[in-house]
Specification:
Distance between the termini: 61 Å
Mean pLDDT: 78
């Protein structure tokens, strides 16, 4: 069976005496790394110094925009009713 290189994504060519596999190896490494790292067990959040943390602290709960406060209350009420 002859394979047309334009139709097969896994098909590649080379010329000369060397194979350059940088792109292929990089792709396999990136695909092997999990997109989201989950801690299994009792992991604690790291303590970040105030000087590094700055104004936008991602670990604290954000303030609710007053315009959406009533929607948040409605969501909480509906969630309680479903439990």
């Amino acid at each position: 069976i002859l394979i047309d290189p334009e139709d097969d994504l896994d098909y590649d060519t080379y010329s000369g005496d060397e194979l350059i596999l940088d792109g292929l190896v990089r792709e396999y490494i990136v695909l092997a790394i999990p997109m989201q790292i989950h801690c299994e067990g009792g992991c604690e959040m790291p303590t970040i110094p105030e000087s590094i943390r700055g104004k936008d602290d991602i670990w604290t709960k954000p303030e609710v925009d007053p315009r959406f406060a009533s929607l948040l209350k409605l969501k909480d009420d509906l969630t309680k009713d479903q439990e």
